[in-house]
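Quick note —
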Amino acid sequence: MTTNLVIRGTMLFSVGVFLALVLNLLQVQRNVTLFPPDVISSIFSSAWWVPPCCGTASAMIGLLYPCIDSRLGEPHKFKREWSSVMRCVAVFVGINHASAKVDFANNVQLSLTLAALSIGLWWTFDRSRSGFGLGIGIALLATLATQLLVYNGVFQYTSPDFLYIRSWLPCIFFAGVITMGNIGRQLALYEYKVVQEKTHQD
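Predicted structure written out below.
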């Protein structure tokens, strides 16, 4: 059981690191985020600590979602297949891409659009109350952590419009939480099916 948990955590960490590298590259290329020159040390133009932090958060979220489902006695059964999970990842990347590449008339329009897309992602691929609640809670905590980092000069946003950061950032965090939660649930379901098959064979 512990071994399976470590394997799932490692896989989630790897996915989180990969997505962080790809998505942060989009943000830096668009000059949405700016890191000090001495901090930028990789070919991905990203601070070295960003991918590990995102990977760790992804692992925690991906392991937490199925655990909460189990504790609440509400197993998540909506669209439980890998094709759905991959579409969820694609939509999340699309939402992040839109925040960096699409030009909107103003920040309010951008924030409202991303909020609608993020909630749409939850409705399309999750629809659980626990998923929505965790998504909101973790997104708020992540936003607060980002504000503290910016306030302390670790990095900055080019056009902050809400307490040192961009007002659409919580929407990106929410969509990311829902995405990693879906991946975590799918991995847990796969593990459960493997254990069930071995039990039947024995």
